[in-house]
Amino acid sequence: MKNISISRRNTSETTSHAYMHKTSRLKDFAAGKLGQLRDLAAAKFESFQAYSFPVEQYSPLLAKVASSALIDELEAIESCLLGCSTAEYFSYRERKARIHIELNMRGSVWPAFRPMSDNLRQGEMASWASEARACVRKRWNLQDRQVIDMHWVFALNQRAGLRFAPWKFSHEIRNLCWGATFEFDRAARYAAEEKAADVKADELGIPFQVAINLSWLQNIEMASRMDKLLVNGGRLERFIREIAKDRPWLRGRSRAYKWIWVADQMMEGSYGAKRDWYVVITKEWLLAHDFRKHLRRARSLNAECLAS
């Protein structure tokens, strides 16, 4: 009888353990499904949101932060935008937009040369929700870039008084970049319109020498040409840095001569146009005072680089 009692107790304990294990697995399964449903709901929430730019007006909250620190923060934010939750995404996106607007107001680093991702998809998506979220965030990312570009042109015009706006398009469109104030909500509505980048750049009256330095609102052919020139310019910069060991007058000027050569290849027209573009990009006046001489030297150095 004693053995039978012990056997029954062992059987009961085994059954109890199996039941508890099965219950635990069911709880985990339910929690996983609940998490997936929440993830799906969050993705749907993002997808049904009408596009709007996360900044309504300029605020000098970041005015005392160094531009280099802001660029570093942009790089960190770009790496977090895909995998973060919905709440984190909206927070990151607003911070990112404020940094870009602050850099625009300073005229610091053209949008084309800032950390700005074209595609927020990285590797395989874990679920439909993450796939849908990536598509929405990619679309918003491209629209944010358009607003940032438009605001850059506005801020540049406020500082330099470019006055390039054409008269053949409606006053409402032209005024987005060339008006006395910048209206973020109107710019966001225009960014949401389905038009090619070069069409929008033309409608907004953005001149060629400005458009080639923007993040999205630029002619596609010119953007491709610029990418190739930057590759060749990088090769020229490395070559100058190497030969400068034997030519003291070139030391510390490899970057300047690279940009002078890029300006020469990119800009058509007078020396003045090439010089002005070089100064806007580099913010360096040292070689601009005798630009013709340095332009001839940059051409000669590039020929030497190609021949080496």
Describe the structure concisely:
This protein has 308 residues and is mainly α.
Can you offer a commentary on this structure?
- The chain has 308 residues and is an all-alpha fold.
- It folds into 2 domains: 60-211, no CATH class; 220-307, no CATH class.
- Helices cover 67% and strands 0% of the residues.
- It has 12 helices and no strands.
- It is globular, with a radius of gyration of 28 Å.
- Mean pLDDT is 77; it is low at 119-128.
Question: What are the defining features of this structure?
Answer:
2 domains; 308 residues; globular; 12 helices; mainly alpha
Strand content: under 5%
Q: Kindly provide the radius of gyration, computed on alpha-carbon positions and rounded to a whole number of angstroms.
A: 28 Å
Unreliable residue runs: 119-128
How large is the count of helical segments?
12
| First and last CA, distance | 99 Å
How is the biggest beta sheet arranged?
none
Instruction: Give helix and strand order, one letter per element, not per position.
Output: HHHHHHHHHHHH
Number of domains: 2
Q: Give the class from helix and strand content and strand pairing.
A: mainly alpha
Number of strands: 0
Whole-number mean pLDDT: 77
- State the helical fraction: 55-70%
What best-fitting shape do the alpha-carbon axes yield?
Answer: globular
